[in-house]
Amino acid sequence: MNPLTTDTFFNGRIQVKQNRAGYRFSIDAVLIAGQTIPRPDDTVLDLGTGCGIIPLILAYRHPRIKVYGIEVQQQLADLATINVEENRLENRITIHCMDMKKLKHNMISGPVDLIVSNPPYRKAESGRINPDQQRAVARHEIKATLSDVVETAQRMLRASGRFVTVYPAERMADILIQMRSAGLEPKSLRTIHSGRHTEAKLILVEGKKGGRPGLKIGSPLIIYRKDGSYTDEVQEMFKP
Q: Domain spanning 4-161+171-183 has what CATH number?
């Protein structure tokens, strides 16, 4: 395994080991975890969990939920398992190293209430593929396409279950069309901007399995102030 770094969240109450040179989670994961509100006793599934950052944040913030993380890359899945164990959350988070396309209800606790995913954004043939394999698989649709993520979410959710994902704004049409065609009706959307006067780089979308049409557009989520520091809303996401 690559040399590791350790980052802390929530005033040191959560510690996250990451590969120094391989794939490292970005602010996207913090945003999706900060904007996702599970209900008490929900079972949550994270598709493409990486080092386990989203399950760690959600399990810490919501002490009554159970979380499963699915990661196709063995080294990252092993790292996620280490992070779960070192934060003493083994009784609430389970990591599986597998291809999400092969995931079945009996491999976890049955249909789930909520699915989150920070999926690969870029088509496999678009742009320069990162020479680091971990980063390439995490960013490009090499092991899992958008269709794979949405179809897995549809298959694994219970009726009226929720799906939350973050995706590039320029591919908004792709994600909304895929969700609706799979029966995950888009219900809410927020645009995510680096600064107050910049165009949206990302969108955060929530859909409902079997939901009725009707999409609410929330206020823009701004990441940085003019001085480069996080806005109040983003700072709150790092607080316990």
A: 3.40.50.150
